[in-house]
Amino acid sequence: MGSEIALLKEQIEQEYDAVHSGLHGLAGGTARHVFIHTRMQNIERYHRRLRALVGENAADDVLCCAHDTSRLRWVRKYLLNHPNPPL
């Protein structure tokens, strides 16, 4: 069970990475919406599986942590590519 939980956490982080890239990528309009919507549906599916394995509170903690981890990765990447970001 522990390896399934770790795999689900990794999959959620990867989906959030894709969402952040989709939000700030070159695609626009409907294509961007469909891409992000699909990723969020995947996250929801993984979250439901986590809830079945570890309970609602623990699954929510994993989800929040995965989002924060992905967001920090995106911010670091952005700052490396834009050393003087607008404030």
Question: What does the secondary structure layout of this molecule look like, with pairings?
Answer:
Elements: H1 2-24, H2 29-54, H3 56-81
Describe the structure.
The termini are far apart. The chain has 87 residues and is mainly alpha-helical. It has one domain. The chain is globular. It has helices at residues 2-24, 29-54, 56-81. It has three helices and no strands.
Describe the structure in brief:
By secondary structure, this protein is an all-alpha fold. The protein has three helices and no strands. Helices cover 86% and strands 0% of the residues.
> How much strand?
under 5%
State the order of secondary-structure elements, H for helix, E for strand. HHH
The tally of strands reads: 0
List low-confidence stretches: none
Give me the number of helical elements: 3
Query: Mean of residue pLDDT?
Result: 87
Going by helix content, strand content and strand pairing, the class is mainly alpha
Q: What is the radius of gyration?
A: 15 Å
- Coarse shape: globular
Number of folding domains? 1
Task: Name the descriptors.
single chain; 87 residues; mainly alpha; 86% helix
